[in-house]
Design brief:
By secondary structure, the chain is of the alpha+beta class. The chain has 6 helices and 26 strands. Helix content is 14%, strand content 27%. It has an 8-stranded mixed beta sheet with strand order 1-23-19-22-18-17-16-15, with no helix packed on it. A 6-stranded mixed beta sheet has the order 14-13-12-24-25-26, with helices on one face. Strands 2-3-9-6 form a 4-stranded antiparallel beta sheet. Strand 10 and strand 11 form a beta hairpin. It is globular, with a radius of gyration of 22 Å. Bound molecules: 2-acetamido-2-deoxy-beta-D-glucopyranose (5 copies) and fe (ii) ion (FE2). This is Purple acid phosphatase.
Length: 459
Amino acid sequence: MVSRSAFGFIGFVFLSLVWVSHGGITSEFVRKVEKTIDMPLDSDVFRVPHGYNAPQQVHITQGDHEGAGVIVSWVTPSEPGSSVVLYGTAENKRVFHAKGKVTTYRFFNYTSGFIHHCTIRHLKFDTLYFYEVGIGMSPRQFWFRTPPKPGPDVPYTFGLIGDLGQSYDSNTTLSHYEANPKGQAVLFVGDLSYADNYPNHDNARWDTWARFVERSVAYQSWIWTAGNHEIDFAPEIGETKPFKPFTHRYRTPYRASDSTSPLWYSIKRASAYIIVLSSYSAYGKYTPQFKWLEEEFPKVNRSETPWLIVLMHSPWYNSYNYHYMEGETMRVMYEPWFVQNKVDVVFAGHVHAYERSERVSNIAYNIVNGKCSPVSDESAPVYITIGDGGNLEGLATNMSEPQPKYSAYREASFGHAIFDIKNRTHAYYGWHRNQDGAAVVADSMWFYNRYWHSVPESS
Ligand SMILES: *[C@@H]1O[C@H](CO)[C@@H](O)[C@H](O)[C@H]1NC(C)=O
Ligand SMILES: *[C@@H]1O[C@H](CO)[C@@H](O)[C@H](O)[C@H]1NC(C)=O
Ligand SMILES: *[C@@H]1O[C@H](CO)[C@@H](O)[C@H](O)[C@H]1NC(C)=O
Ligand SMILES: *[C@@H]1O[C@H](CO)[C@@H](O)[C@H](O)[C@H]1NC(C)=O
Ligand SMILES: *[C@@H]1O[C@H](CO)[C@@H](O)[C@H](O)[C@H]1NC(C)=O
Ligand SMILES: [Fe+2]
């Protein structure tokens, strides 16, 4: 086994010679230790909208490869009603319409509401649209802004949220993200509702989660990654189809990137090319995900989209004593590609804490040469664990000691991050812990693009 955290003495001496940066930081921040508990069912954030069969759980995500499409989804509780979305560029002139489809599913003894998905295509880039759902019964209105047309110097700001759940801390994280008004779309790294922590995976908690986050995701696209809490595999109650609730409720534009599964896909958004992977689908050689990713990298045109971002749930570089080595087999399969293709940054979740790595790779090992420790590598991505959304399972606080050299900063606090692309060479990254004011950055870094400006960031 390749052990990334087993720094043998020889490896340590070797790394001390090649490592350019100063040692990593384990934050000294002291937080109030409180139990993380879910908001009760009668909480304000779970309120059902007024009106007979009013659409609820409204959410949007990108609906095509370029950013000119949007998938609008919502649930009607009592009867299907209309699957039409009315939309337009002025609030009182929603002159266009698109018709979606409605689906339902059962999970053990739970029956879902009527889940609508409607893809709107060929929108104008960088344009404010108003839209309406629930036509003919209890209509509700929302709006969104499409991203700018993909291009190398288009500024764009992503929010990063992971492992959110529906606790009081989850609400603080989301409120904090909203108070930090720069985020234009959320890159969500998996583990949405944590409904599966309830008896029989009580799918009513999928509904409450979607009502809770509607206040953000009805107005800006959240880009979905599947986590382990999306699997909902429960043979003990006869539920043997993995990802059933997630795939019924959340759509992704996977066909637009020639993927054969909604669990892995890519999109372009402004100056970024985003590849979403599934830690819980087969990824070994010859598997659909492997073959797709192999063909995906050559399609990335850094002259059009300089920033290459990968999302996955289970982190490859993680120095907490939680989920130890869970990302290791995928790392062994795919890390050489990430280095060859100069991925700028990888965002993952799963570990309920925050961590940022140095630019490192660990791809030299060939079973017999002993080169099994991460080394500094300017072609490698920065790995960021942002699984600190605040779900009911609480914080991961136990870290491996000493802090591995590849770990630049780590802290067991809830929060979110912002990846703020300025142009083809520069992006400002900041992590915000929930205890601080919205404008306060607890960890930050200027990213230099690996394709256009591949110089060490610490210099
Ligand atoms: C489902 O089954 C559980 C356990 O038997 C029960 O507590 C719950 O009320 C049932 N829910 C529905 C919707 O029937
Ligand atoms: C959640 O946060 C919002 C906005 O900060 C607040 O209005 C609401 O009361 C909070 N709800 C709960 C249950 O904490
Ligand atoms: C890459 O993108 C640039 C800028 O949009 C374009 O001029 C060029 O033709 C593209 N290259 C390929 C191989 O498609
Ligand atoms: C932290 O994790 C290590 C390794 O798994 C374990 O030996 C230790 O008991 C844990 N410490 C605490 C306080 O849980
Ligand atoms: C790119 O953005 C950075 C940070 O804002 C700025 O310093 C730099 O001059 C910009 N580059 C160009 C070519 O405008
Ligand atoms: Fe997870």
